[in-house]
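Issue 218. Parser rejects a valid record. Input:
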Amino acid sequence: MSTNLKRRKETTLRAFKSDKVAVFAALFLLLVIILSLIAPLLPLDANKTDVFHILEAPSKGHWFGTDEIGRDYFSRIIYGGRVSITVGILAMLMSTILGVTIGMVSGFSGGIIDAVLMRLVDVIQSIPWLILVTVVSIFFKKGLISIIVVIGFFSWMEIARLVRAEVMSLKEREYVQYADFSGVGAGSIIIKHLIPAVMPTIIVSATSGIADAIMTESALSFLGIGIQEPLSSWGKLLQAAQSNLQSSVYMAFIPGLLIVLTIFSFNKLGNLLRVYLEPNKAV
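Output the parser choked on:
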């Protein structure tokens, strides 16, 4: 086992070092996360207005220019990234917990419980996801917590299916059947045998889940039903930039580029993580 683990580490490290895009993705995400964490410690004020410097192009005084009411756009971008990353991580945690729990119960129990839970998944997945989230979010009070709950509560279906499939296969293994035959409780079997076995699937799915949550939050904020003032997210900044595209294209270009790079980076590192966790399934 130790030899296999060592081989996985060497393979992953070699793949990482030889892939300049993966190195860029890791450094980019590291920078974004660090800036998000230390934003309150920086001399930045995302809500300070200056009517004498409205819609100024990027300059030494304002690296990313200013917005329509004179706020420093660099500060808005930093705090917007803080909100977007927060939504991505917390929504991912919520959807992962829901998906793993439902998938584990469904796959391990089988029978009518499995049938009912999978029909529930089918019904929810049959509705276009963005439309479903958009409609539901209308009935929630708009804000950071609401958008996290809405995204997390309606993005667990795919991981539930993956975990269910893994568990249905694992419970046929001899060591699991022996534990059941020996009188080991279902809870112990799940905690000691099943969860560790499906952990690679959970981790890889969680990585892509962050990217999906950020993309969804950006779409909802762009439509005006996501993050609300005075908070800003990259999606909210895109939405606010619509009225100034002709004169200040940077207002849309910068947050749009950051959204694309962040989603790409999470997906890229998720694929690299698969090489380490699931070497036989990696491509």
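Fixed in the parser; the record now loads. The chain has eleven helices and no strands.
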